[in-house]
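Technical appendix A lists one of the benchmark inputs used to test multi-chain prediction within the project. The record comprises two sequence entries:
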Amino acid sequence: MNTPMMDAQAYDNLASELRRGLAVMAVLSLCRDLQYGYSLKQRLSEAGLEVSEGTLYPLLRRLEAQGLLESRWEVVDDQRPRRYYLLSPLGNTTLPQLIDEWKSLVAALARLGIEKEQAQ
Amino acid sequence: MNAQEWIDRYVYAVGEALPVRERGDVDAEIRSLIQDELEARGADLESLDEQMVLSVLEQFGRPETLAARYHAPRALIGPALYPIFRIVATVVLLVLTGVWIFGIVVGVSLQQRTIENPFEMFAGLVGGLFQTFGTIVFVFALVETATRGKIEAEAKQQAWNPRTLPKVEQTERVKVGELVVGIGFTVLAILVFNAYPEWISAITVADGHVTSTPLLSENFSAFVPWLTLMWSLAIALDAYVLAQGRWRPLTRVLQMALSVFGLAVLAWMLMSGPLLAWPALEPVARLVVAIVFAVTGIELLVQGYRLAMQRIAGANTTGGTPSQAA
């Protein structure tokens, strides 16, 4: 029997929508330590969470605009400026809430039995 | 091309799609991020490799997409204003077209102007419509800029009550063919009565000579501007209804108002002097006008009755709901 396959582009859109929500939580948790754009991208990628540059970098700015991150420019190797991000006090209180939210979502999905249905 | 120039072009293209006040900061950040990426690939920042730069830029994606993520794209007319904009634009453009037709036919019928180049005249209308549309867009864009996001923000702040939902209007589907044919005949009538009244003439053959005598009297021509006004308004209304796809109570009321106007003109015609230049046919002409008067009157009554019944039905259905909810 032919297995119906979704159009690759449409599937990518669905998957990146899912990832985008998770990226917020992942970025905030990584920013508990000082990070810059590329280091974040690397850390996420190494962990298996691929987020494109076009998504990640604007996301950092949005999180900063929402007061969840703080940023500062520093000169690297006495040569060029680089922007560093760190979790703000507001981010510090918001992150655990988001993690709780995430856990309850995972539990809710488990109660819906999505994995079991996939196995069938 | 110089590798650095590609970076400059990319940053410039992103900046173009951003508000001016954000450009400097985003510019510096993207440059720094590109350099980080190049450094990670082992590039020598002093002498960049063009291929490597192009590959990094490709990875960053289209400049306009990146810019859109930095800053949500701005709309000339936002979603809060758009519905009002659509109504205003449709009504103004239709009225303008109606007034234009009326102006031309009255001008021609009063012999003040002649139609030398119909295409040029039509182009004038199209130009005018574009100009008006542009002005409406401009005004709405100004309002949008002045109130940017405030309308949506205010709406979100107010607690929403489902009881404030507007009543579903009693609408009727439009019979497209009927309306289009109606508009066609009305345009034809406007043209004939105004530009070519000589077409309405009696042709007689006597002693081998064909003579054509105008049928309409001098007295009748006094009514032509009024008939033209009524027909122009009817075309505007029909075109609006056609664009809307359905009759609403308001458009039905407007149609009835036009019928009342028509009845007044017809009555005036019946009470005035001769309609035709040929006395022998005068009774026939009066009979025709009287029949049109009667048909219009009956239609008006039927429409009024239907509209009233709909109102009563509407009042009954909504009347019961609150008591059930309470």
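Chain B touches chain A through 18 residues (CB under 8 Å). The two ends of chain B are 76 Å apart (CA to CA). Comparable benchmark entries are summarised in Table A2.
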